[in-house]
Design the sequence.
């Protein structure tokens, strides 16, 4: 217990020292993470993939920036990008899927299976028929919208469960007409 308090105090002191060394306009990210031995680390470089309890803080600068994506979401998006196959006639299931992705702050590409022949063929390849919505998380397709399977696929890929307050996720391109 005392050791953990010392580690936390040293970590906070390191952050304070790092912040005081930064120029007025400079900004840097500081990562806090725990290794497999339970040791807490503070670094300016992203932690290794097996790190636990990762958190990220932006230090320095006087401008207020929009929150970045959570670190878990950044890493998951690199390893398991998300694509939503939809159509103009999909209606509520596609809207519910978009809302879920927005709530979790997940960046995704949207493809129109009804107007783009290549996207339609990809859906047929993934599901055996032309039906939407299809959520593709990395290489794992989830057919139709149902909250639990979509949440499970996103959780398994390592995406954060919620967006950061004020986080702006890039909107998918509008559907071609």
Sequence:
């Amino acid at each position: 217990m005392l050791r953990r308090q010392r580690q936390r105090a040293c970590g906070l002191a390191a952050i304070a020292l790092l912040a005081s060394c930064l120029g007025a306009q400079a900004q840097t990210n500081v990562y806090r993470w725990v290794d497999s031995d339970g040791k807490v680390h503070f670094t300016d470089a992203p932690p290794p993939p097996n790190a636990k309890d990762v958190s990220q803080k932006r230090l320095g600068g006087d401008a207020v920036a929009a929150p970045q994506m959570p670190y878990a979401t950044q890493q998951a998006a690199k390893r398991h990008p998300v694509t939503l196959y939809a159509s103009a006639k999909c209606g509520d299931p596609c809207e519910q899927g978009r809302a879920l992705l927005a709530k979790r702050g997940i960046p995704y590409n949207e493809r129109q299976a009804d107007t783009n022949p290549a996207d339609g063929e990809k859906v047929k390849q993934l599901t055996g028929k032309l039906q939407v919505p299809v959520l593709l998380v990395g290489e794992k397709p989830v057919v139709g919208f149902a909250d639990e399977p979509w949440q499970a696929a996103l959780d398994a890929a390592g995406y954060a469960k919620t967006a950061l307050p004020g986080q702006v996720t890039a909107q998918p391109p509008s559907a071609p007409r």
Notes: The chain has two domains: 2-65, 72-156.
